[in-house]
């Protein structure tokens, strides 16, 4: 990995979560201040409503050496900077749950005092669990939330629906889930590795008068494309309203 687990310290009020972290070889504490005293790069992974309380509790521990990285959806950089000491280096990240299996998609934005080197550090750390890109400005993170942040939920629904379709046609459910998931995984890998337009790859599969183009016709008729566009728009709007 990019960082030995013995160099990581985490804090949390819940014992069972600390025990899980300890099992990875990391040090733990119930006190946020202990983390600030030892760490230089601090990831804040809390629910958005809790963020003001957390920032207030750690502000007195933050020093010039600290880089503060927020994973809280919708918490703006300006709000973090105003709650922390002046010129505090802040980076805001929008990750997604596939980070848990090293296939995440994360995007970050730098605050007013965060340096290019800070950005490179965050990119290096998050690239160990997937891909990581820097947004041109923080406002783009709302669209990132609507696409890759919320996207796993949309894709899980697609996998479930595809599997249900196969079950309806007589396929065993376990097999249908495996095939549906692998199909989406394989198709995604083709887009990333070939760098070809998804429409071009789709055309390759659609033989004239074949079964795939018939299925594509039904998806177009029933509005799959528009539904997905609207889902991203709705997720983006919700993030902007935070």
TrEMBL record:
Residues 138-240 form the Pyrroline-5-carboxylate reductase dimerisation domain. NADP(+) binds at residues 45-48. GO terms for molecular function: pyrroline-5-carboxylate reductase activity. GO terms for cellular component: cytoplasm. It is found in: Cytoplasm. Its EC number is 1.5.1.2. Pathway: Amino-acid biosynthesis; L-proline biosynthesis; L-proline from L-glutamate 5-semialdehyde: step 1/1. This is Pyrroline-5-carboxylate reductase. It comes from Ornithodoros turicata.
